[in-house]
Amino acid sequence: MRDTSQPGATCPAHAPKDHPAIPAQKVGILLANLGTPDGTDYWSMRRYLGEFLSDKRVIDYPAWKWQPLLQLIILSKRPFTSGAAYRTIWNTEADESPLMTITKAQTAAIRETLTDQYGDRVMVEFCMRYGNPSTRSKVREMVAAGCTKIVFFPLYPQYAGATSATANDQFFRALMQEKWQPTARIVDPYFEHPAYIDALAQSVERRYADLETRPDILVCSYHGVPKRYLMEGDPYHCQCQKTTRLLKERLGWADTEITTTFQSQFGPEDWLRPYTVDEVARLAREDGKKNIAVIAPAFSADCIETLEEINEEIRESFEEAGGARFTYVPCLNDDPAHIAALSTVIRENLGGWLD
Ligand SMILES: C=CC1=C(C)c2cc3[nH]c(cc4nc(cc5[nH]c(cc1n2)c(C)c5CCC(=O)O)C(CCC(=O)O)=C4C)c(C)c3C=C
Ligand SMILES: [Fe+2]
Ligand SMILES: [Fe+2]
Question: Known binder of ligand: residue 193?
């Protein structure tokens, strides 16, 4: 009997001329990040923010209440203010946002690492939850290229409904469109993975080694979510606290040398506290911490929230409160230790698939 599982083989039940050749079977590694606008103009920003802020996993108000407010008020103003903020950090050479540039670099580096080990049996791509390239288009591309198995990897170290879960939802929706659905695995949050903690610690040590005077405290600023989400069971807050503790332990520091804060609150609800923007001012004014460093462990890549919010707005709040030295520790981006950590997490999720 002919073995039809071989690449290029045809099934004996069909005349060979009618039968498409079976492509080589591959494992797809699909990295996922949040998404970013295609441009900084009003309509690009409106499209991006409209899709993002209409997601029930991000803002869970009933549509009849939220959509009129979103469409008529928020989306008539925010595309201008956010567009202006994006213009201050835009990668003008490539005409794309830093999040896009960095995600491309991370994907290329992980692809190189994994193809060195597995050859063309793996296919590594990235997709975005909002905007381009869409999750659907990348799942389609992987299936068409012969991926019968996919490892889906949301690039958020800490799980949040507003990020990891909605990325997974979109992946499941994409799978639902496939006639011959690949087998799928979802990578767990990696907030406590030793390789991730080690990459964070190395980045702090490297940054500190460049400084004339050691900062009084390292502020770990995580993206916030409404406090209600925590009360309803979202593990994000606890995972952030644990990342900070493990980082502190890995660095061998005292409790007083590191702290956890939350940034980017949006709308009228109470969000996770303390708010970074207030806490850095309080540290300068009340605790006499005039020399601080800030790191953003929830972001796998620098983006508007780090380059503009932390390095511009939050820095300004600290300096206005009397702070003297503000050091931003960049995200892990395509740092080799980060690429090695992410590749390790992927390998752990390939168990049995490429043996
Ligand atoms: C309105 C509610 C929001 C929640 C909840 C939220 C959670 C959340 N977001 C990230 C990571 C990123 N957010 C980014 C941008 C961004 N986030 C919100 C709102 C919420 N985020 C808005 C409106 C925006 C757009 C920018 C702006 O208008 O202020 C980005 C950056 C994208 C980029 O292009 O650079 C990231 C990354 C996490 C990790 C998180 C919860 C854990
Ligand atoms: Fe956000
Ligand atoms: Fe907690």
Answer: no
Tell me if 154 is assigned to some domain: no
Q: Flag whether 276 is in a domain.
A: yes
Distance 245 CA to ligand 2 centre (A): 23
pLDDT, tens digit (0-9, with 9 covering 90-100), for 143-156? 999 999 999 999 99
Atom of ligand 1 nearest to the CA of 58: 5
Q: Rounded to whole angstroms, how far apart are CA atoms 143 and 171?
A: 13
Distance CA 86, CA 91 (A): 10
* Cβ atoms of 83 and 41 closer than 8 Å: yes
CB of 305 shorter than 6 A to ligand 1: yes
d(CA 44, CA 287): 43
Q: Judge whether 31 lies within some domain.
A: no
| 272 in Cβ contact with 225 (< 8 Å) | yes
Is 305 annotated in a binding site? The answer is: yes
Query: What is the ipTM for the molecules in this complex?
Result: 0.92
Q: pTM (2 decimals)?
A: 0.94
Among protein residues, the one with the nearest Cα to ligand 1's atom 13 is 305
**Centre of ligand 3 from the C-alpha of residue 84, in Å:** 34
Is 149 a domain residue? no
Please report which ligand is nearest the Cα atom of 299: 1
> Which residues span the domain enclosing 58?
40-87
| Total number of domains in the chain | 2
